[in-house]
Structure formats: C-alpha cells, structure tokens
Write a structure and sequence with these properties.
The chain is α+β, with helices and mostly antiparallel strands. The chain has ten helices and 16 strands. The chain has two domains: 2-183, no CATH class; 195-391, no CATH class. A hairpin with a 6-residue loop joins strand 14 and strand 15.
Length: 392
C-alpha cells in the first residue's frame, strides 16, 4: 500500500468548512470518550468497549443529532462522525493491548484532522451486490480533487496519474491543510544492490557515518531555523496568550504569534523529515543488509546534555524509516546489541579501550591504528558477530 499526500489550496470559505469538519469530528470523539468512561461506573452492565461504543453511537444518531441545538451537525458528512467512533474504538483497543496510552480528549490547539470515505457502491439491479471498485472515488490527473461528501477542491501540487481511493484524511499543519489517501499499489524492489552489507553509526556531531566512508549531516538551516524560533519566542514573551480556565481570551496579536510559531515549528520539522527521508532512501538503494545500533533513545534524551542533539538528529525516526523501507527496496535491517563495544573496539585488531564522548579520533593502543571514531564504529557494526545481531 502506498499513500499520496498533497497540500490543499483553499479560500476563506473552504478553510472554514475544513475547520468545521475537524471541530465536528473532535466534538464527537470527546462525546464518545466521556460517555464510555462514564458507563464503566455501571458494574452490572457486562459489555466490551466496542459494544458500548456501538450503543453510544446509536444514542448519538437517534437522540443527540435530532435535538434542535445540534442542527449544525447535519451540515457535515455523516462519515466524519462515523470515523470518529472508529478512531475511538481503535484507541481503546490499543490501550487494552498495552500498545498505547489511555485515550485523551482532543484539543483544538493540538491540530485539526478528520477522515471521510465513500460508503456505498452502485447497484445495477435491486437485490444484487454493487459493482466491484464502485465504492471508490476516481481521482483524475491534475490539480482538482473531489472528496466524498464535500465539493471539488484545488491542490497546490498536481496528481500525475489517474488513481482511486476510498478513504481520505484531511489534516492541518500550522495554517496549511493537506489531504492524504491510500493507493492499492506495491513498489517493485530492486534485485541488485551495489553493497552487500553496510554498517551505520548514528552520532551527535555527524548525523550518520557509513562503513563505506559516506557521511550524512543535518543541514545548517536547521540551526538557523531554531535560532529564529528562539528569537520569535523571546520577542513575544509578554503577549497575552489567553487562559481558558481563567476565561481570558487571547489578543489578536497573540493569535498572529501562534500562527507564526506553528509555521516555524513546521519548517524545522520539514527540514528534519526531508533530510532523514533522503538519507534512508539513499542507503536503502545501495545496501542489501543494513546494520544499525539498538540505541536507547529515551535514555539518551534523559541526559540534558545530549537531549537537544539526539532529538534534532531523529535517531528513532531514522530507524523507523529504514525498517518500513525494507519491502520497498528489498533490504534487510538488523539491530546490533546496544552493549556491543562498537566505539571502544579497534576495527583492525579488535583491541578494546575506553573512549570518552569528547574523543573524536580512535587511537588504538594495540596496533596503533588511527581512525575517525564514527567510521571505526560503523565498520565494527558491519562486522558484528551474528550472536549480537537481531532483525529490526
């Protein structure tokens, strides 16, 4: 399965419509969450979370939506609230399986998003099933997209081919709106890779060092953007930002500041995402077996001296991208045990000696080998014994 994500080009009316759909989805999600947690106090009712949510959904459609004060809900597609209940079911399922935290109420300041989909197909004759693939929306090549239940919208970047999808997710980042949809397509992986095995050492000074001598680094624009972010926050430190509990409304200048702040955060995130995506794609194209260290990222972030550099270099995100790109490029990602002395061991003779974080050059006390610390570690990761290696 592949996904396409495009930015929408909206006017003020369309932006209000998107915000209304997102607010509707957020209201329904919080409504279901509140009633479900309240239903647990009735111990005599024996039912699963899924059945309870089905009953809550029936109360919502047959009772709440019919009340005059909630007539505004009928202005939006029904799939918006249906997807909200589906998301709530999935959230509680993940919580019960210890795969996620307890679901929290959705907040407006945390971002807007909603999901819509085409529900039914075309029936040629009564009593017969619909034609195959008629429950999908056909997306023509170009800059126009028709979302189910909504009108035609413009895209900033064209779709290059005709495709179809059933489910569409609209989301907002800062003041920009995006639409994402899935395609029933598979990427054909390459058969031959130039390098059989590659070791990668993720570092603080350099983003990644490969055993073939290749270096990847985070662009200098990240540091400049973070400096600009700090200046923006400092200049607006006395803004009346508002307090919902104290019923203090944010000033107009504060609202403008919030938008500027969100844009700058999104700009920094986009730089990191672009750098890591290009790096992991380049590595996946040239190496058949990729070995990285099983780093304790949460423990490294707990160290306040390393937290900023580790977060900026996206250690876990790089591992995640390399792992999901295995099927795209026919690679195999392996994790080397975190206690394997890749930085302390000489890649030439195997001599092990202590190495402080400040030492950037490995000077072997056994054979006299002098080598860059990260390059030495990457070679050791590539040549690690199988007993110290497991699949990602």
């Amino acid at each position: 399965m592949l996904a396409i994500k495009r930015e929408l080009k909206l006017n003020n009316v369309e932006t209000s419509l998107m915000r209304g759909n997102a607010g509707f989805k957020r209201w329904v999600y919080n409504f279901g969450l509140e009633l479900l947690t309240a239903s647990w106090s009735f111990e005599h009712i024996k039912a699963s979370d899924s059945k309870r949510l089905d009953a809550i959904k029936k109360v919502f459609t047959q009772g709440t939506m019919q009340r005059p004060e909630y007539a505004w809900m009928k202005l939006y597609p029904s799939t918006v609230y249906q997807s909200a209940f589906m998301d709530l079911k999935n959230a509680f399922f993940r919580w019960r399986k210890n795969l996620g935290e307890f679901p929290k109420k959705k907040l407006k300041k945390k971002g807007d998003s909603f999901t819509i989909y085409k529900t039914a197909g075309i029936y040629l004759e009564k009593g017969k099933p619909p034609l195959p693939f008629t429950n999908r929306v056909v997306i023509n090549a170009g800059k126009i997209i028709k979302l189910p239940g909504l009108k035609e919208l413009r895209l900033k970047e064209r779709v290059d081919f005709i495709c179809s999808s059933q489910t569409f997710t609209v989301s907002r980042t800062a003041d920009k709106w995006f639409v994402a949809f899935m395609l029933d397509a598979e990427k054909i992986p390459p058969i031959i890779h130039p390098i059989e095995k590659l070791g990668i050492d993720l570092g603080v000074k350099v983003l990644a060092t490969c055993s073939d001598g290749t270096f990847y680094d985070m662009p200098i624009t990240t540091k400049k953007a973070k400096t600009k972010l700090g200046k923006l926050q400092w200049r607006n430190r006395h803004k009346l930002l508002g307090n919902k509990k104290l019923k203090i409304r944010a000033s107009n200048n504060a609202r403008i500041y919030y938008t500027q702040l969100a844009r700058q955060h999104a700009y920094i995130a986009n730089i990191r995402q672009d750098t890591s995506q290009k790096m992991t794609t380049d590595i996946s194209r040239k190496a058949a077996v990729i070995r990285i260290e099983d780093l304790n990222v949460s423990g490294m972030i707990a160290n306040h001296k390393l937290a900023s550099a580790v977060s900026n270099n996206c250690f876990y995100e790089i591992r995640r991208q390399l792992t999901y790109k295995q099927s795209h490029y026919g690679t195999k990602v392996e994790l080397v045990d975190r206690w394997y002395p890749s930085s302390k061991m000489c890649s030439k003779c195997g001599h092990i000696q202590p190495m402080g974080l400040s030492e950037r050059v490995y000077n072997c006390g056994g054979c006299g080998n002098i080598q860059d610390r990260d390059e030495n570690a990457s070679i050791n990761l590539r040549d690690a014994p199988l007993i110290k290696v497991r699949l990602a």
